[in-house]
Amino acid sequence: MTNLLTVLVVLIFAAMVFAFYQMQKKHVKFSTRVFTGLGLGIVFGGILQLTLGNGSRVIEQSMDWIGIVGNGYVSLLQMLVMPLVFISIVGAFTKMKTSKNLGKISANVLFILLATTAIAALIGIVSVMIFGLDGATFTRGAAESARISELAERQEMVQNFSIPQQILSFIPTNVFADFAGMRSTSTIGVVVFAAFVGVAFLGVKRKAPKEADFFANIVESLYKIIMRIVTLVLRLTPYGVLALMTNVLATSDFEAIVNLGVFILASYAALLTVFLMHLLILIIFAKVSPVTYLKKAFPALSFAFTSRSSAGTLPMNIETQRKALGVDDATANFAGSFGISIGQNGCAGVYPAMLATIVAPTVGINVFEPQFIVMLIAIVTISSFGVAGVGGGATFASLIVLGAMNLPVAIVGLVISVEPLIDMARTAVNVSDSMVAGVVTSHRIHEIDRTILEDKEALIENN
């Protein structure tokens, strides 16, 4: 009976995939298909959860098959991350009209990413205070106990990981290992290496323009090939969103969601506030309508929400900035690449600040003291460098922050049951911040294309 039900569930999912294929053939708008996939995934996954129950063998087997579509799509995007980060940053140097823009772009992008992370940390602290969260009231189950034991091992890896050591870890000692993603800071290692290649190109351009032009042509050819692969993969987005959302709802622990409901509400309230801050920044510093931004950024944000991978969303992030928001190529590449490893507002800002504020009273710390708040915000902001844009980045950031504040790490394990649900919103906020950094920076250096930005038809599906 179990196998029969599994086949039935997979067949229903296959029918929905076929329906999406038919929608694509009829040229239904990309954003419409993505939104439909999001809604159908919620409904289908919710029905499976309510009818079959949490931990069902049917759900477990079905998700293995459905995961071929969802996890396969994320894997294809992650396959592109390191090549895209490298070629995007090097390409940004080769396309730069003047080397003077280099300092302006990097400084503006980094400032926005770090400043918003500091504000996000403060919002996380305030949210905990408003909702009155107390770490002493969090309960522990079997899953939580297992996670806490695992965290104890991971803490040994980071407890002696000082800020200077963290900064040193950004420097690649073996760039090929970083291209293979062998370290937690591999992404920023590739960013650093690409920046060195770009600076070297600028030097060669002054002394040997012929050779520099040859190199620039090679980079441009590689960039076009990689972006073509990106386009091919992005066409699978509606299918990936459908599968990922189905998996999230079908495998969620509804009982744990109820038990940790206040923590979830506090997290979403904080993340929503951070997102509203992004919209406010766009209005004040770039004169961009929130409605325009939401409409054009929706495909990237919705995929980030369902995939829970900032790195996996990078191709769509850069394409959205360039072809929907009017951001110049250099800035879009810098903002997108930096945003997956520096200053992630959700995973490295709100989350570790909330956990630290929740657990601090259990060791006798008054969280209302200005000294505690200032120190926590500073540590969160500095620690946000090098947080990987993949699943587990928030845990890594939290362990560093809690270790630096001499706070117990058990709180990270106590919320394991609702981690995926919160991580969806965290990832969407991360991606939003990098796009906001791109739009604002492009506006400040007077390179933003307002024609594209204000064109209602200039959406990512048109490319």
UniProtKB/TrEMBL annotation:
- This protein's record includes keyword Ubl conjugation: no
Q: Which organism is it from?
A: Enterococcus florum
Q: Where in the cell is it found?
A: Membrane
Q: Could you tell me the membrane topology recorded for this protein?
A: Multi-pass membrane protein
Just give the chief location class.
Answer: membrane
The name of this protein is L-cystine uptake protein TcyP
Q: Which Gene3D superfamilies match?
A: Sodium:dicarboxylate symporter
Give a GO cellular-component term.
Answer: plasma membrane
Q: Membrane-spanning regions, if any?
A: 6-22, 34-52, 72-93, 105-131, 186-204, 225-245, 257-286, 372-390, 396-416
Q: Which UniProt keywords apply?
A: Amino-acid transport, Membrane, Transmembrane, Transmembrane helix, Transport
Similarity section: Belongs to the dicarboxylate/amino acid:cation symporter (DAACS) (TC 2.A.23) family.
Give a single Pfam family match: SDF
> A single Gene Ontology molecular function, please?
symporter activity
Starting at the broadest rank, the lineage of the source organism is:
Bacteria, Bacillati, Bacillota, Bacilli, Lactobacillales
